[in-house]
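User: Is it possible to get a 3D structure for a protein together with its bound compound? The compound here is pyridoxal-5'-phosphate. I've pasted both below.
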Amino acid sequence: MTTISANLQAVHARIAAACKAVGRAPQDVALLAVSKTWPAAAVCEAAACGQRAFGENYVQEGVEKIAALAGADLEWHFIGPLQSNKTRQVAERFDWVHTIDRLRIAERLSAQRPEHLPPLQVCVQVNVSGEASKSGVAPEAAAALAHAVADLPRLRLRGLMAVPEPTDDADLLAKQFGQLRELYQQLKAAGLPLDTLSMGMSHDLESAIAAGATLVRIGTAIFGVRQPSVES
Ligand SMILES: *Cc1c(COP(=O)(O)O)cnc(C)c1O
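Assistant: Yes, that's possible. Here is the predicted structure of the complex:
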């Protein structure tokens, strides 16, 4: 068994245990394998183990991998910060975008999504940590943005996404995840047909699942520790 296949099994076991601990069904939590900085060969290896959904943070790197693996029937999620001059490539190549944090970017993606493809599946990213340096819309502005995004013709709003402040403080983490879940429930109560709460990474997937995550984004625990120099 390769390292990636063993790692994937271990991640599935963590997800199952986290679900069991809070009385949730493991099939209600989707696994997004975050392959940023890793070569197409690593994605292939994970795909051979049955993993279908992959996340990328950098547009150029992502589109190259998507092209290299065309025909493999994979689902590609863009999870990095998105600048307006890169929206066209994302609208044309990716299946999902998790990091919508302003209307202008959403409008461009909708206008640029090719007619022959299904609508682009999107999440609104919310800044739950309040750190000024973090991407994401402020929690108090999230509902207005979500409703505006839901009205765009070539996008389908699926839910909310957050990257909490990195911390070992379990209460602080639970508070940030809980804030995203609360916003998500408010939007659903207001009539938006959402089904995706994208939160939880390698070090905190258990707290995210306890707080209601329906999709966890896992890189390190599957592919190993990234070279810091490659990430920028
Ligand atoms: C890199 C990244 C991940 C994966 O993080 P790991 O700690 O490697 O699991 C998840 N979400 C986002 C937005 C990322 O940038």
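The pocket of pyridoxal-5'-phosphate is lined by residues 34, 36, 57, 79, 163, 201-203, 217-221 (CB under 6 Å). The CA atoms of residues 166 and 173 lie 8 Å apart.
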